[in-house]
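Example record

The entry below shows one chain as it appears in the dataset: sequence first, then C-alpha cells.
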Amino acid sequence: MLAASIAKIGDVLGYLATDFAKRPQAHQSRSAYRNVPYTLAKAQPNGVMVRTVNDTVLVKAIANAKGGKKLAAQLESIGATVTGMYGVMVSAAVPVSVMAKVAALSTLNYADAEYGPVNSVGRTEDYGEQSMNSDRARHDYAVDGTGVTVGVISDSYGKKSAPFTTPAQDIANGDLPASPNVVKDYTGTGTDEGRAMMQIVHDVAPGANEAFYTADVSEADFAAGIITLAKPVASGGAGAKVVVDDVFYFDEPYFQDGVVAQAVDTVYNTYGTSYFSSAGNFARSSYESNFSAVSATPAVLGAGVYHDFDPSAATSVYQQITIPSGSTVRLSMQWDAPYASASSNAGGSASPTNSVGLYLMNSAQTALLTSSTTSRVGGDAYQLLGYTNSTGAAITAYVAIKTLAGANPGYIKYNCYNATINTFATNSPASFGHSNATHAVGVGAAEYTSTPAFGVSPAVKESFTSAGGTGFRFNANGTPKAVPEVRAQPSVTGPDGAATSFFSSQLIYDAQFHFYGTSAAAPHVAAVAALMLQSRPALSNAQIYSTLQSTASDMGPAGFDAETGYGFVQADKALAAVSGSNISGNVYRDLNKNGIKDGSDTNVVGQSVFFDSNNNGLLDSGSGTVSGTPSLAIPDAAATYSIPSRVSTSLNTNYGGRVTGVTVSLTATHPFASDLGFTLITPSGVRIPLMTVVGNYQGGGTGYNLTFSDAAATSVQSAISAGVLSGTYKPQSKLSTAIGENATGTWQLEGRDYLLNNVGTLNSWSLTLNYADTSIATDGSGNYNFAGVAPSTYFGTYCVRTAALAGFTTTSATDLNVGVFTAYAGTNFAFVQTPLTIASVVLDDGTAQRSMIRSVTLTFNGIVTTVGALAVGVAGTAGTSGTYLAQPGAITSPAAGQTQVKFTWSGAGLSSTSLPDGRYNLTINGNLITDSTGQKLDAANNGTAGSTRSVALHRLYADIDGNAVVNFNDFLGLQNAYNTTAGTPAFVSGFDSNSDNVIDFNDFLALQNNFNKTI
C-alpha cells in the first residue's frame, strides 16, 4: 500500500516512510529521529537539504480540489503540526512515524520535503545611505519615514545564538526603532539577518515603524506572512505599506508565478503595498536550453532519452561542473510545464504531464553522486539535488538530464549554486521566483564605495547580483502564454556593505560588521520608499516604482538592463520628484504698466531669477575659508576594536548663497597611519566620510597634512595605504554631497580612532567654501521653473528675486513659504521700464548768453539708441515752424545710466552755424528718440512715451547777458574780449560773430549794428 502511494509524497519522504517501516519496533521511537540528517538509500547527499525539527520533518503538502483547510485538518488529525498555509499549500511538521499516513490522505494532491530557504547575503562594508543620498533627502524634505510601517521578511529577528548585540541592546543604542513589531519569529536558531535588515531600514528611515515576519518556517507561511504584514491593523495585520524580503525557496517556479509571487501581487493590488525583494547573489550561474533529445545508455544511468548539452554536431549527455572543497552544490532544475501548486492556488488545474530527472556523476562518470528523480506528473515541475564535497579538494562532477515520464520537455533550465559550470555554459539569468513577480521590485547590489557619491561614476554592480531575463511561459493559473514574458527585473540597484552592530564579518580596518549582498541592498531601497510615502502619503505603489526607476542613476547601457535594472537608486532625486515644490513663472516687460502680461508686452530671455538667501537683493557668489586650531585629542579605540572612539570640532561660516564647492584641509598626528578616520558633517547633519576605510598600512610617520578635494587625481585610501600622509587627495565620499547646503552654518569635523593602542591629535583644520545664490535663467519664452525645490534646504521661507535690467525696475521680491509638493505657478516678475526722460537742455556752451546759439545739448535719463532730427520753429510772426532742423550728433555717456546728444542746426540763413537773431521754439518730439527696447522718449516728463516738449529760446548777437537787449554792458563785455583768440582765458565764443576764433573789428561792427536792439 505504501509503495503505491509513494508517488504522492516523492522519493525523499517516501524513503523516510519506508525506512521507518523497516526498523524493528523497538527502534521506532520518535526520539531516534531527533536531528537526524536523513539520506536516500541509493544516494547520500540529497538528504542534507531535508529540514528536521526534533523528531519531525518539515513537509510541503498541496491539496486537491477539497482545499487547503481540509488538508490542514487531516494533517493535524494524524499528529502533524501545521506551520503555515496559503491557498492550497500547507506546510507542516510531520512525525516520521506517520509519514505513510500522509501519503494516504484523501485531500492530498502531492507532498514533498520542505527544503530550506536561502537568504541573499554575500561578501561583507559601510555608508550605504550616503551612496544614495538618503541622508541628504531626509534633511531636504524633512522626512524620516514617520507614519509608515516597513515590513521585513527574513530568517530571524532575535534567535542568533551568540550575537554581538541583542535586540534589546540595538533598541537602546538607537539601531532599531523603540518598539519593533515582531509578528512572527523563527522558533529555532537563526542568524538574525532580518534584524540586520531592520537596522538598515532604521538607518535610512529612522522614524518608520518596523514589523518582522520569519520566512524560514515554510514557503506557504512565507506567502501568508506577506499578507499578514500588509493587511491593515484593523483587520489583524501589521499595516505595512512597504514590505521587503531577502529570501527565496529553491523550488519557487522559474516560468510561472508561484504562491509567494502571487502573495506579492495580492498585497500590491489589495492593500497598495510596495514590495521589494533581493534579486539574489548568483550572477549568471544558470544553464538553460531547448531540450535536445538524444537516445543514449550512459554507464550507471541506463538507457533513456537524455538532453544533449553539446550544441554542435557532436553529442554529450554530460555537462562538467567544478565543486569547491567543502562546498555544498545545489542544482535546481525546472522545465516548461506548469506548477500544480501555483496553478491551483490561482484557480487553475494545470500540472505537469511529464517528469524529468536530474543526476550528478563523479569525475569518471562511473558512479552516481546523487540524483533527484521524484515523479512530478501532476505536481510541480522541478527537481532539486544537493551534494557536499568533503574530499578536501575541489572536484569535477558531471550533470545529466533525462526524461522520466511522458513527453520530452521543450525547454529546461537549472540554477547552479556553489559550483562552476565548465562546459556548454549558457551564462543564463539566475534570478527567479517572487523577486521577478509582476508587482515586485527586484533589487540588485553595488558596493557603496563603488558609487558616484564615493567617486566612482557610474556605479559598479556587485559581480554576484543575479541577472534577470528568464521568460515566464505560463500564466499564474497554469495556462500557457502565447510568447514567454520577460519582465524588467531586477528593477533597480541599491547599496550593500552597510555597517550593522553584529551581522556578517567584522572588518579589522574599521572595526565594524559589514553586511553585503542583495540582502543588504533591498532594505536600503525599501526604506527610501518609506521616506517617499511620508512626504506624499497619497503616492501609489506604481508611482513609487516608476519614480525610483526614472530617478535612478544609469549604471550600464542607457535605460534598463537585466543586471542593474534602471540604475542605482538616488533618494534625493526620488524625493524631489514626488515632494519638491515647483516654483515657476514668467519675466516680461510690462510696457503699458498695467500689471498684466498682455499682447503689447515682451518676454525677457536669459534673465536670472534667484533665491536671495540673505535677503540682500544681490545675486551672491564667491569663495571663503574658515580655519581652526583645536589641538583636539583623539582617544584610543575602546578595549575591543569593535568600538571606535569619536570626537568632533566645529567651524562657523557666514556666506551668502548656497554651497557650490567644498575643500577640507587638516593636520593631525598619530604613530600609525591607518588608525585614524575623519568625517565632515554639514550644518544639516549630512555626514561625508573623508577617510574611514584607510587600508591596512600600519606604519609611516606621525603627521597627517592632508587636503581633500573632489578634483584631486588620487584617492586618499591609496595614499594612506602607501604610507603617504601629505598631499591633496580625493576623499572617500564626494564632498559635492554638500552642494546646495546653506553656506551659513556650523560645520563639524569628526575624528575617530579605529584600532587599539596609541592616541592621536587633530592639530588644525580648515574649510573652503565656494558659494552662490541658486539661480536659473529664463528660457526663450521668458519662463523659469525651479522643479523639485527642497523646502527644508531653503529653510521654508525665502525670497525669490530677479536682477534688474538697466533702465527698468522690477516688481518687489517675492517671499514664499515653501511647502512639500506645492506648486507656486505664476510667480511672475514684471519689468517696468524707467521712463526715458530729459535730464537737461543746454544751449550752446551752457552760459547764460544768447548772443550765439550754434547748438543745443540734450541729456537723457536712460540709454538712447535712436535719435531723429528735431524741429526748431520761429516764434510769432517772424517765421514758421520747421524753418530750421536740429541735427543730432554722436551719442555719448556723461554719467552712468545717462546718454547725451549734441544737436546742430541746418537750414537757410544761419549766421556762422548759429541761428540768426530771433525768438524760437525748439520742439522735442518724443517719437523721434527711443531706447534699446524701442521705448520712446517721454519728453514732457509726464509718464507718456512719445510726448513732446517745447523749449523757448532767443538769439540776439552781442546780448552777452541774455536779457534780450544789446546795451552798454554788452559793449563792455566785447571790449574786455577784444583781440583775444580761442583758447585764451578772456575769449568769449558768443562775440565771435563770424566763427573765425578771434574777437576783432568785424565783431565790433556786428555789435554796433545791434546796439540798443531788442527782440
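Notes for this example: The CA atoms of residues 451 and 459 lie 4 Å apart. The chain has a mean pLDDT of 86.
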